[in-house]
Sequence to fold (298 residues):
Amino acid sequence: IDVSALAGLDTEATNSSTASGAGVADLEPALSALGELSRTVHRCGGWSLCLDPVSPDMAREALKVADFVEAPGFAKALALALQGGDAKGLRDLLEEYKKLDTRALAFPALKQEDDASKPERPDQGDARPKDRTDAGPGTKSGKIPESRAELEAREDHLLLALPCGLPGLALLDARLLLRPGGEAPSKAALHLTQALEARSRLDLGTGRLVKTIVPSQSTLATIVALPAGGYMITVLNLSRKPAQVVIATGLGPDAVTSLTPGVQATQASSPTSFALSLKARQAAHLVAGTGLSAKAKD
Fold:
């Protein structure tokens, strides 16, 4: 239910200033309509989701009548973080969500074709990759450059990773999960498979966001406490350059297990930290203290 389309239906223009300054009283007709719709949905055995709340205050009011509400400002903050390679604003917003019940929030993944929120591809400008070919002994570096498809798959995975690693609902875009035609999973979906399985098995949706860390300007880590014990850790590299990320969580590398192919936790300078080597625009999910982490220490 897109409640923004209902906001202020029965409110006279003279009684409200601007849409951005509308108070809860101005939105009362929308909330009443949402409540009635939610009751109808419940009678049919379903649950209700309020989309596009205009503010955290409205989200709090909407949760009085709806089962779930879209996390206010999340899509915009994620888009800005990806475009600017700066995680601070996104971190601050996630910390604000702790004032709400994060189990009742819905976190949307950015749409692939949404130009306003789609991050610039790392294959633009000076960072344009070449086709993947063997760089033989005649080259200076001797390295094999990544293909454009590999970079785009990592970036598509990045759009999905944070919603998947947070409690509440993950609203994932099927166009990022499926190849054209919808008959096979995309490379981004294959990167996400183990994390989605863990999300279901560990009941991550009813977990609790306990900490958000910004190890550097362009990296972000979230830690979610799982209902049966243990943690899910999600790490994002928003930069268009590789990053060495040190996560100070009180856990060493032997206590965590990576759910993302090609990413492994390694020893950091402190025994209560672990390090990750992330490629440009790469995300990773890890678990600790669960049955999925065989080496995890209680």
